[in-house]
Amino acid sequence: MLDMELIRKDREAVATALAKRLDPAEVNRALDEIQRLDQERRALISEIDAERQRRKAEARAYAQAKRAGTTPEPAPEAERKQLAELESQLDEVQSRLRTAMSELPNLPADDVVAGGKEANRVVRTFGEPPAIEKVRDHVELSRALGLVDHERGVKLGGSGFWMYTGMGARLEWALVNWLIEQNIQAGYEFLLPPHLLLDSAGFAAGQFPKFYDDVYHLDKQSAPRGQFLLPTAETAILGAFQDEILETAKLPLKAFAYTPCYRREAAGSHSDERGTVRGHQFNKVEIFQFTLPEQAGAALEAMVAHVEGLVEQLGLHHQTSLLAAGDASAAMKKTLDVEVWMPSTGKYKEVSSISWGGDYQARRAAIRYREPGNKQTRFVHTLNGSALATSRLFPAILEHFQQPDGSVLVPEVLRDKLGADRLTPIR
RNA sequence: GGUGGCGUGUCCGAGUGGCCUAAGGAGCACGCCUCGAAAGCGUGUGAGGGUUUACGCCCUCCGCGGGUUCAAAUCCCGCCGCCACCGCCA
């Protein structure tokens, strides 16, 4: 949610920033509508407040007269209706205003350019693509090594699901555990949240209404409150602090969570999204920070560096890109993707998206802090990022460290956890 | 899931229709006192919104949502949460 006051005071700046993401004509139409509703809203509030004030005075006078022994006559029926009428008008206007406001995306940061994927810019590259003679892709490797059972996964959950087996399950779990340890070391508090969330959490994170149909909803019979399966732990961590005023001294508040993520995802399989690269359920460890506005810039840099360090420790060749406005998620001001090299496709694939949300999510979720020496509450800034999604790391590790004899070397940092240095073909 | 009890401000806690514009206490902040502190005394102490150049003024909020009434923390209905007991428990 954007700041209404900013729209009132500097509509031009808002329109210019939004034009990086949306058609300018559309922006103007939306802003016109919002300003009209805003004015209507304020006029109605003034009217209602004045009417209420009058009524309170009347009720007080009535009580006094009664105490004095006289029987005053109540206010005419007509006025009662008028107030109810105004109030329902206000409800209507406010709900339309809220809808219009909640449909506006965040303002991209100054250094974020307009455009889609093609305008993304690589800002850093780490290492070189590994030299591999005959590249086998991760699907082939995971089958040969007995790590992932796609057929039985589909048998259980339908298309878009897989099952990790044997050393594959152990590798996946070693990765998750290693990531958890790394994030604890980096000063994040470990959370294990519910996987079923109420709609208010989805709205606060800015995922609803836009992505409402992209998550799994429980039917009304089994979940009268309409919970959905979380598509990312970001939704849970943000939602956990909804409507709170955070202690200023505790900021930045750093938390992370491990959860499976459930997404409907458009069906259909691209050649570079085979195997575990894209599915309806995957494991992810998500880091999150609530900060003072002035801490956000440094926090974003620290988070990106932390994530880059994780990929680096796994020994994977990767790059970091600054996303253009149109390719970043709507709730964010600025997003950097860390992309890992996939030898089989010769492309980089996103393993983490790290974003600065400004106060956009905090405004939707009403998460505030109190300014020191000032009674005023203000909205915190939110930042989030994957650290990391294992479903992308897993195939990258297989492909990077495949050996001519068909085995795969295990990244050093995982060897103790896995209890093996090398994965070998099962037949 | 059932039955019963409970839900008031930062916390404890009073309040069963009208000076509730929410008592009292604790905590916290500031001031007085003090060489300094404690104690004592005094003042202040929530959120959201409207209006105003500003000081300020006003509205809403007693778990949430409706209703009754000239008037609701208080009465009625629904929901949510907590506690206790019972039931269920792959």
TrEMBL record:
**Name of this chain's protein:** Serine--tRNA ligase
Q: Where does L-serine bind?
A: 232, 263, 286, 384
> Which pathway or pathways does this protein act in?
Aminoacyl-tRNA biosynthesis; selenocysteinyl-tRNA(Sec) biosynthesis; L-seryl-tRNA(Sec) from L-serine and tRNA(Sec): step 1/1
Q: Name one GO molecular function term.
A: serine-tRNA ligase activity
Q: Specify the enzyme's EC class, one word.
A: ligase
One Pfam family name from the record?
A: tRNA-synt_2b
Return the EC number.
6.1.1.11
Give the residues the record marks as binding ATP.
263-265, 350-353
- Chief location of this protein within or outside the cell: cytoplasm
**UniProt xrefs under InterPro entries:** aa-tRNA-synt_IIb, aa-tRNA-synth_II, aa-tRNA-synth_II/BPL/LPL, Ser-tRNA-ligase_type_1, Ser-tRNA-synth_1_N, SerRS_1_N_sf, tRNA-bd_arm
**PANTHER family the record matches:** SERINE--TRNA LIGASE, SERYL-TRNA SYNTHETASE
Task: Kindly state a single biological-process term from the GO annotations of this entry.
Answer: seryl-tRNA aminoacylation
Query: What cellular-component terms does GO give this entry?
Result: cytoplasm
The record's annotation in Gene3D superfamilies points to:
Bira Bifunctional Protein, Domain 2, Serine-tRNA synthetase, tRNA binding domain
* Cellular compartments annotated: Cytoplasm
Keywords associated with the record: Aminoacyl-tRNA synthetase, ATP-binding, Coiled coil, Cytoplasm, Ligase, Nucleotide-binding, Protein biosynthesis
* Highest classification ranks of the organism: Bacteria, Bacillati, Actinomycetota, Actinomycetes, Micromonosporales
NCBIfam families attached to this UniProt entry? serS
